[in-house]
Amino acid sequence: MTSSPSRVPLIAGNWKMFKTTGETRDFLATLHTSLSGFPNANQLPQIALFPPFTALSTAMQVVDELGASQQIRIGAQNMESRENGAFTGEVSARMLTDLSVPLILVGHSERRQYYSETDESVNQKTQAALRHNLTPVVCVGETLEQRESGQTDEVIKTQVITAVQGLAPTDFPLIVLAYEPVWAIGTGKVCEADEANRVCALIRQTLNTQANADNTRVLYGGSVKPDNIEELMKKPDIDGALVGGASLDPASFYQLIEKTAQTVHATVPA
Ligand code: PGA
Fold first, then answer.
1. The CATH number of the domain where 157 resides is what?
2. What range defines the domain where residue 204 resides?
3. pLDDT tens digits, 108-139
4. Ligand 1 pocket: which of 17, 229, 242 to mutate (most atoms <8 Å of CB)?
5. Is the dihedral of CA 77, 80, 83, 89 positive or negative?
6. Which residues approach ligand 1 with their CB closer than 6 A?
7. Residue 80 located in a structural domain
8. What's the 25 CA to ligand 1 centre distance in angstroms?
9. Any catalytic annotation for residue 108?
10. Is residue 59 part of a domain?
11. Backbone φ, ψ for residue 143 (5° rounding)
12. Is residue 131 in a domain?
């Protein structure tokens, strides 16, 4: 449950390298039908989906056709921080805004692990996103080795401080952070809710050393499923979830949204 009214909960699905254009179309139509059946639309969290590049244009078109572009926001999973140039295989912020895509995932651990992204490149991408009015969802998280050797807090602080270097105080409410412990991603091992909450609070405290981050949303990600979302969303410093596996099926993704709405509204004082 978010403790600031301006931190509207966000449930975001990262599809990684899954789904064709046809599968994207079918998913969005099914999700939209489920959402239309939810009794109090104003209690729903914000919803975001990050399809692969090849399905972005289709996703944007479908949410527009369904009249759902404000309800289901679409984002890209990665981009190059430079404006344009000889960077084979890359996509720039300008190309994403050309599709009217509003969000961009930055520094996911799979990008850091398999494509050599560093804290510095994450910072460059965060700055490029903001220059182009894209909302960056910046991922941070420790590996199992770092956790076991007691380095979690230092790693998180360094990743957060480096990610926001050069940002203006007015950028802070616009960005979203996601705490994704690497050992919890795709492993079925969810981080225990109290610990996830503690690290999300640490992320906000760290941001607050640079500029006011009371309204900055901090999500948790790593093996979030319909059977553990309620426990996570009850925590005051967890403002939503970044979901991989459980976002691929429209029924389980809808359950995450529904349970978030119920949890948040059950815990908000009248
Ligand atoms: P998972 O992935 O939910 O499948 O663990 C989370 C993520 O990578 O963002």
1. 3.20.20.70
2. 10-267
3. 999 999 999 999 999 999 999 999 999 999 99
4. 242
5. negative
6. 14, 180, 185-186, 221-224, 242-246
7. yes
8. 22
9. yes
10. yes
11. -85, 170
12. yes
